[in-house]
User: Which sequence fits this backbone?
């Protein structure tokens, strides 16, 4: 059995646009209950609600020293590009010292920068550069597990009475019916095989939900929690503005670690619902988060939409927002690519709107370093429709309820990689799965496995940023990037996009600017006007008298679309084809056309 990963995605003139002015303000958690007078449409305003976040996967962003691996100096050299795009917050995927079993999500030293990425001085310089440009930085907090090379684990595995033994989960094996030693329970790792690794030094197994080199931390040990809180303070005191928290609901384990029952098919759901999850998050909030003007966004592996308010309702003092994977993973069943219908997709947003109230806040994202490219998954990456469909998707992200997240390169319409053979992959998930399913159990042929990876592999989004049409797309001056550059970089690159006023990049910049000055797109109510239509996604965002109508044609066919309920489209604000068809009840939409109207 393989567990499903991650559930395996003012309206008065007095609105304070804190995104623009960045005046430090106490968070809701700091200030206790918000005063009613400050509320906008019932929401407590805050900079992280008004922000647009841009995710950097540092290994693939920009190399500055020719070793083929992106680094912090490289990021520093590209900050103007991000400032011009208009994003307010950068989320940096792990930059810490790591042996890279899982590209930095296995941390060896939380207070040291990964050697390949540079030094702490480079980090400080990058952070200063970000602040100078009026942006903020959140860093990845990966504390469900460490690297097996972390000092705590090295100590822990030494002996049963080592003071660090209880920082991790160690258990004796069980004797199976055949008299052979078996792991303590039937948990399977997200990256294939048992979630337990036998360690001959002490004749016990340790728990690892992810790779063998990612042992799980024991949060039930108060010393572990204190260590984590100290690490958080270290980075916040340096000036970072918060954290994206890796698989954070997994921190509280099931008491006694019993076997999963046959009914418990979704291991993620069991792992995410340990009895102390909320207690530990509240402790983290009390001890650390509430003391800073920060933002926290949790990766909500295993959490259903219905459970979300438990983590993000501001009266509970846990996290600000979480990533829910319902939309981003609509195209997969387990690890397999499946087709999806627009009506299902729309229903997800309606359900989010229903479940998340005025005390909650949502995230809007359709890609990241664990998912394939935005335009290849949700748009049409053919030559004809790549640009309009990528623009449509950016329009969706910037007009939906919640904080939008852009993954690096999606603002260029970067596409999935045309993988042909297994030696082109780097990701441990793809490689372990191959060993297990193709070579071990023979449940799938190599061809079918690669075909599925072409749609699903995490490496699709990890190929280097395409900066220009020079060799290796300007990502590295070295001869070999750590992962191959997508061969389409001559046509799809940042130099071209920045220079072309009509590019996806410049269109996205205009969208971000529009969102920043349009409270209705941030705090407004949401209503899907035509939930059943197979190709059209049309909705209203309303704040007092301000009303915006957004319409997308999610198909390559032109559609003459009559607006429902006697509505007429108002005044064109923006559109990805630039047409102007205002004050009309029937819209003539081209393939993948997207428009925003002010009603
Ligand atoms: C989720 C991260 O996003 C992913 O990249 C990583 O492999 C796992 N957590 C384990 O840390």
Assistant:
């Amino acid at each position: 059995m393989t567990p499903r990963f991650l559930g395996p995605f003012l309206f008065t003139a007095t609105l304070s646009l804190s995104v623009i002015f960045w005046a430090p303000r106490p968070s809701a958690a700091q200030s206790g209950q918000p005063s009613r007078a400050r509320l906008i449409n019932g929401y407590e305003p805050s900079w992280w609600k008004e922000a647009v976040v841009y995710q950097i996967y540092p290994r693939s962003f920009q190399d500055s020293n020719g070793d083929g691996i992106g680094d912090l100096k490289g990021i520093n050299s590209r900050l103007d590009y991000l400032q011009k795009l208009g994003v307010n917050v950068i989320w940096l995927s792990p930059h810490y010292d790591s042996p890279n079993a899982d590209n930095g999500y296995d941390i060896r030293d939380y207070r040291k920068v990964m050697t390949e990425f540079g030094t702490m001085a480079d980090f400080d310089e990058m952070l200063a550069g970000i602040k100078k440009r009026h942006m903020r930085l959140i860093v990845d907090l990966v504390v469900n597990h460490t690297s097996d090379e972390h000092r705590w684990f090295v100590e822990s595995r030494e002996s049963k009475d080592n003071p660090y033994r209880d920082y991790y989960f160690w258990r004796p094996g069980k004797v199976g019916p055949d008299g052979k030693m078996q792991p303590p329970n039937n948990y399977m790792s997200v990256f294939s095989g048992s979630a337990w690794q036998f360690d001959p030094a002490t004749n016990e197994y340790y728990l690892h939900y992810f790779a063998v080199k990612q042992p799980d931390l024991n949060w039930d040990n108060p010393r572990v929690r204190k260590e984590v809180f100290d690490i958080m303070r270290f980075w916040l005191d340096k000036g970072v503005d918060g954290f994206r928290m890796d698989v954070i609901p997994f921190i509280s384990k099931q008491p006694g670690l019993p076997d999963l029952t046959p009914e418990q098919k979704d291991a993620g759901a069991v792992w995410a619902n340990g009895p102390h999850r909320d207690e530990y998050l509240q402790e983290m909030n009390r001890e650390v988060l509430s003391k800073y003007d920060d933002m926290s966004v949790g990766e909500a592996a295993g959490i259903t939409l219905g459970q979300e308010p438990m983590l993000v309702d501001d009266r509970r003092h846990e996290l600000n927002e979480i990533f829910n994977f319902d939309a981003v993973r609509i195209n997969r069943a387990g690890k397999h690519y499946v087709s999806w219908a627009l009506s299902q997709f729309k229903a997800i947003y309606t359900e989010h709107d229903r479940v998340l109230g005025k005390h909650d806040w949502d995230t809007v994202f359709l890609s990241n370093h664990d998912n394939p490219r935005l335009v290849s998954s949700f748009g049409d990456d053919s030559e004809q429709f790549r640009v309009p469909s990528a623009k449509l998707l950016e329009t969706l992200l910037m007009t939906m309820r919640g904080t939008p997240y852009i993954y690096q390169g999606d603002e260029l319409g970067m596409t999935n990689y045309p993988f042909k053979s297994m030696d082109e992959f780097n990701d441990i998930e793809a490689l372990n799965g191959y060993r297990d399913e193709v070579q071990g159990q023979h449940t799938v042929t190599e061809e079918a496995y690669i075909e599925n990876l072409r749609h699903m592999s995490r490496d699709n989004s990890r190929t280097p940023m395409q900066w220009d049409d020079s060799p290796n797309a300007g990502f590295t001056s070295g001869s070999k990037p750590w992962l191959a550059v997508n061969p389409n970089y001559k046509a799809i690159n940042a130099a071209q996009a920045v220079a072309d006023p009509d590019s996806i990049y410049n269109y996205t910049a205009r969208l971000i600017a529009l969102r920043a000055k349009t409270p209705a797109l941030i705090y407004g109510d949401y209503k899907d006007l035509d939930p059943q239509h197979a190709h059209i996604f049309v909705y209203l965002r309303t704040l007092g008298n301000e009303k915006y109508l957004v319409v997308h044609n999610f198909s390559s066919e032109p559609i003459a679309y009559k607006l429902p309920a006697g509505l007429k489209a108002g005044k064109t604000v923006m559109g990805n084809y630039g047409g102007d068809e205002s004050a009309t009840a029937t819209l003539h939409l081209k393939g993948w056309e997207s428009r925003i109207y002010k009603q």
Observations:
- The pocket of 1-deoxynojirimycin is lined by residues 102, 105, 142, 210, 246-247, 299, 369-370 (CB under 6 Å).
